[in-house]
Amino acid sequence: MRDGQLLAWLQAPEAARGIHFSTRDGGWYHHSYEELAADARRAAGRLVEAGVRRDDVVALALASGPAFVAAFFATLLVGAVPAPLAPEPTGRPVATGHRERLAALLTAARPRLVVGDAVADGPGVPTLSAAELLAPGPDGPAPGEVAHPATALVQFTSGSSGPARGVRIGWEGLSANLAVIRDWLGVTSRSIWASWLPVHHDMGLVGCLLGPVVAGNDLWLMRPEDFVRRPLDHLRCFAERGASITATPAFGLDHLVRRVHPDQLDGLDLSGVSAMVVGAERMAPGLLDRFTALLAPHGFDGTALLPAYGLAEATLAVTGVRRGDGRRRRGSVVGCGTPLPGTTVRIVDEGGRPVPDGTVGEIVVRGPSLGLGHLGHEGAGSRFTDGELHTGDAGFLSAGELYVRGRLGDSVKVRGTRVFAEDLEQSLREAGVLPRGAVVVLGDDASGPVAVALIEDDHGPRDPRADAHMARLLARGTSGARTVVRVVPRGSIPWTSSGKPRRRALWHAYGAASPDPTRT
Fold first, then answer.
1. DSSP per-residue string spanning 199-267
2. Are the C-beta atoms of residues 305 and 276 closer than 8 Å to each other?
3. Phi/psi of residue 169, each to 5°?
4. pLDDT digit string (tens) for 453-471?
5. Stated pTM of the model
């Protein structure tokens, strides 16, 4: 299937259903699919006037809102390829390295046009503001009037283990992934979704925006910064507005557990939540238990939590726990379910040879939802080879279920044993010695493997004995690697939009830094 599924809603858009967008002051405003389709057709006309043609890439640096929806589908209508990017934050400091990452992504994508507000032009790349995009004028092409290239979408990896890379997603792969997600989650024509995920991220875009739009479902869509300020409003979407389906990284569950007091849930009925997909980063079993304990007195069924594994190179979803199957764990790792229909997963060693069940190795994926390739050469990290995706992620299979350990690029071998940063962070947090927001990065220098705990300065007094204790626990977990505890300026630890630390950037910044008194 080419563009039929993705653009069919534009031909006979629903007037009674659509998307509810959050406002900064806690309100909501509604755009029906009929209104959004009219916006997309009008925006397509503005793209044509701006010189966008078939096969061109259009970078979309827009926050969640009607303008993003219009820009995305307008780009498809004119036969061009949308490439969503993280917009520059408004009303708060720009994240560390944001402008540098944006410039690198624009260089990789080589767009004909950038649509967004407050975006610095890339080399020779003109921009179009949201207001200009939606300005009155003749409509652009209707669905089916322009032949489409093989690539439907360029989406970027999170960049947790290196520079973000663009992935070309084909029409068939996108349609296939939307179809298996719909069947997996039991989506019907009457389903209602809620999401706070950024629309430039694969989980937020494919899973929680394109999924509802293609199905014609109502959607309550918060901006990420609104969720951070008012997490209870997200839960009210289920208790008061009928939403039953959502997705979140582990960060979202942790934020709700920390910020929502049990008394605030009085009167809320959360029994209607049928599917809450949890992915994008490794999750600790205890977090899922704490989240369930918080919401269970208000009707929430813990079996609605569906751990999953996916990545941008596979469009989105690869494996997932089915409702009713229950969660399983092996040691400190939560199972991410079995492969979705049509997809196969295998585990290989460093030489590419299959390994037995229970043995950790690289996760390799094959299936109809795989991307068409990276922008530019494959390079290091994940790579497409002979119809398969070598993910660069480490995990193991047990009874057909996938268990993810972490990124191979975020691990080191110590005395023949591979150690993962995620394991160390989890053990240090469970021991109560790693502050929230602190991270562990691993690497090798001239002296051998090194483990670095990075803690942002809170401008309060520090107890050197606590740092020394952390260094000892870190050394115990790395079986002899050199360990470092380093205090860094507040705000200097960069995070991806899915809540993962950018470990490779941190290693390069701090891993080989000058000697520290807490090294062991």
1. TTSHIIIIIIIIHHHHHT-EEEE--HHHHHH-HHHHHHHHHHS---EEEEEHHHHHHHHHH--GGGGTT
2. yes
3. -105, 125
4. 888 887 677 777 777 888 8
5. 0.88
